Amino acid sequence: MREQQRSGRHEDFSALVRQRYEYDVVRALLQLADRRASQIESPEAPDPLPLRPFRYHFPYTDEDGAPSYRPVQEAALEHADEPTLALRSETGSGKTAASLLWAREQVRNQRARRAIIALPTRFTASSLAADTETHVTSGLYHSSAWQHLSDADRLFERLSMARQFLYPLTVTTIDQVLACLTGRREEDHLRFANLAHSALIIDECDFYDDVVQANIETMMSVLRELEVPVLVMSATLPDEHLSVYFPGRDDPPSPLDTTTADTTVEIASIHGVGEFDQDEEGADIDWLIDTARDASRLIVYANTVDRAAAYYRLLARHRDDLVLYHSRFTEPHKADKERAIRSMLGDGGSDGVAVMTQIGEMSLNVSAPVMVSELCPIDRLAQRTGRLSRFTDTDGTLHLIRPLGDGTLYPAPYGTLPPGEGWQASDALLQTDEELQEGQRLTKLDLKERTNAVYNEPLSFSDQAERNQEALRQEFRQHWLIRPQTTQDEDETDTARWQSRIIGPQVEVFVSEDHVQDQYEGYRAYQQATTQYAVSVPSYRYDQYSDRFVTQEVEVGTDNIEQVVALTEPSPYDQDTGLVFSQDTD
């Protein structure tokens, strides 16, 4: 009986997907025709930006001028006719070029008209867009994409095209793709129609985050019904999680695997490190100082902003060529940090030390022979160690830190934080802790196998993930034709009942009262100011340091009042360390 009910619900949802597609295609064409015709007829407006087909010229050739494909690229071409392809290959193996070759085949065979690359974070999307723009006409879209395109001609028109998935290649976040399923904005219906005629590339995912995986499962059910070709690629795609990408199949195929064991990562040491005073160096942290002194290039990964700042302040006494990078910088300063890190640790760089959080795990083409990393789930560690000796065939050295709080493993952010309780570590983090030992030498094949060992059971969604997944399905059902009366910002990915990923409550904070204007011309100007001068602060930090903030009203447009939060003077924010709450800022 239950099986029949599930089958009936599936048939109903499938019919609804097809029905929405039929309406949204007409809806999208009417929108495009109306907007572009109005622009052409306006004597003061420039002609609309052209809608170009997807074209990709593979840039790597042998001495005879023939394409020189790497194994992962050959594999993508050989299996390009599969409706959904799961591809696993180590970092630095050429997966991005492989995905563009795969997309080219989808367009050539009339299975798609354009391509979309969906990445897990804004940072990875911005970085990949910069890497691909010389080989294919592409557009970047996420909530702060304008900062990376600030010098572009007709900026907002270009952003609009990317937001609507109209470029030959759109580089965006998985959150933006998921959001178009909700149908809450008129533009979501235009995006949905364009998604239906695209080839979708999902580049890496947070396998430890079951909320994201549950959302992707729903999206894949929709895309399967629309026959959208999908390429899922990762350095550490767990076999047991493939059911998310092949919904409805009891026997999902194994990923196409081109991982090699060409280099080795040696876990040279494992240290437990709790809170420390960077002004009072102790024996338990001397090894880190010695490592920083001896290594011409060094990457340090911390799991939280506060711990990253502590390492930075410790090492700043011993190295001048040092950069700290985390999420609590303004967007312009993030761009500055990325450039500085690439100039030091990129191919042919000047050498130096980068201290980063998860923001620098993926799509950052930098390398160092030595790395210090706090313990994280094995798939995240594989991404981090992909920056070890990236430009050479030499082995890399890894020093592992077990972050401690009150003498026990401090798991944040890899776990849950129940109200009124301390952090509870995820199973993936605890199993990774058991898997890794000092003195181990791990190849990329070893990391892949250990990832499968950690994620060795079919993905079981938590109650929270299932409720959120059902909320997404309800959004799809209720808004397939008629939008809700509530308005939503064009950059917003979450709704009142559904989230693309579960992130604790955040407060947008201007880093200085001096950056807050009494009046803004309109919401676009207000949004630009927020992106340029504000950072996101967890609500619990806002409550903890409430005396550091001031709230004031500003006028946006005509008769619209918004409340903004700013840091009081003297502001604890600076360009070197960003916004860090610690004893030093009290």
Automatic annotation (TrEMBL):
NCBIfam families: cas3_core. Its EC number is 3.1.-.-, 3.6.4.-. GO terms for biological process: defense response to virus. GO terms for molecular function: ATP binding; endonuclease activity; hydrolase activity; RNA binding; RNA helicase activity. Pfam families: Cas3-like_C_2, DEAD. Residues 76-255 form the Helicase ATP-binding domain. SUPFAM superfamilies: P-loop containing nucleoside triphosphate hydrolases. This is CRISPR-associated endonuclease/helicase Cas3. Keywords: Antiviral defense, ATP-binding, Endonuclease, Helicase, Hydrolase, Nuclease, Nucleotide-binding. It is an enzyme of class 3 (hydrolase). InterPro entries: Cas3-like_dom (IPR054712), DEAD/DEAH_box_helicase_dom (IPR011545), DEAD_box_RNA_helicases (IPR050547), Helicase_ATP-bd (IPR014001), Helicase_Cas3_CRISPR-ass_core (IPR006474), P-loop_NTPase (IPR027417).
